[in-house]
Amino acid sequence: MTGNAFARPTRLLAAALFIAGLGAATAADAADRTIRIGYQKYGALILLKGKGTLEAKLKPLGVDVRWAEFQFGPPLLEAINAGAVDFGTTGEAPPIFAQVANPKLVYVANDPPSAKGEAVLVPANSPIKSLADLKGKTIAVAKGSNSHYLLVKALEKGGVSYSDIKPAYLAPSDARAAFQNGSVDAWSVWDPYYAAAEVAGARVLTDGEGLVTNYQFLLSDRSYVEKNADIIRVLLTELRSVEDWVTKDPKAAAAELSPAVGIPAPLLEKALARASLGVGPVTKEVAAQQQKVADTFLELKLIPKPITVSDALAEVSQ
């Protein structure tokens, strides 16, 4: 796991205060409510789903939990925007695109940076040896994903203009097929797809270390958060508990959760080893980093107008 041993207690304290500050409600207040959670094959929410503790904690409050899987972040946030999902997790780039479309989208919390959890990959026998070699190449990437931002920053480091590559905007499953059959020259992607490709022989051209932060964000609709602070409080408490368990024993966690999340234990363990867990409030520093992501996409004309990330922070008691 990434993170500084001295910084972790501070994060834990901040997270505890953050969770406690959301407040509580009576069972009568919560009766007959639902939380619809969008998750992906990465991040803490799929671990929470696999553990199965959230349902047990919310049942006494009369709250039903429903889960919906998404391949990547943008469709998940579109579902939140459309009112089909109440809560979900994505990397750093999807909320930028979603905020343009929906000013009601809010950041509720985030995990620490996991820069090593995504990478730009090439086939094992590829002639591409450096980031500069990506010029003129076709690169698979999920548009608006965290790895889209990684690709932008990797090209920048290699002295390659974004306009000098051919982006192939593909969902992970389609990108994997294109990568395997040689339809694309490289693939910018995150765990566990990254881990699976690596095990299959893909070569890492670069991971995100030194290029991106790769925060994982927990997001919702502002009105849902305002009306259901007690549900969010329980969810974050359970998420914290699962993350602590995974951090202490990732091998055992991978073995136990593998059947539930549908990822082979060795791949899940590899992905967990690159993750950084410790859910807490979105600080001003994190929001400032997100603003840099937004400004980068605006400069590349990938979003149509400027946004202010701080406008999308959930208003919760700290």
Automatic annotation (TrEMBL):
Where is each Solute-binding protein family 3/N-terminal domain found? 34-249
GO molecular-function annotation terms?
ATPase-coupled transmembrane transporter activity
- The residues that cross the membrane are none
Q: A single GO CC term, please?
A: periplasmic space
* UniProt-listed InterPro entries: ABC_SsuA_sub-bd (IPR010067), Solute-binding_3/MltF_N (IPR001638), SsuA/THI5 (IPR015168)
> What Pfam families does its record include?
NMT1
Localization terms from the record: Periplasm
What family does the entry list?
A: Belongs to the bacterial solute-binding protein SsuA/TauA family.
Q: Which domain of life is it from?
A: Bacteria
Signal peptide from the UniProt entry: 1-27
Major subcellular site? periplasm
Q: Tell me the protein's name.
A: Putative aliphatic sulfonates-binding protein
The record describes the protein's role as: Part of a binding-protein-dependent transport system for aliphatic sulfonates. Putative binding protein.
Tell whether Transport is among the UniProt keywords. Answer: yes
Q: Which CDD domains match?
A: PBP2_SsuA (cd13557)
What keywords are assigned to this protein? Signal, Transport
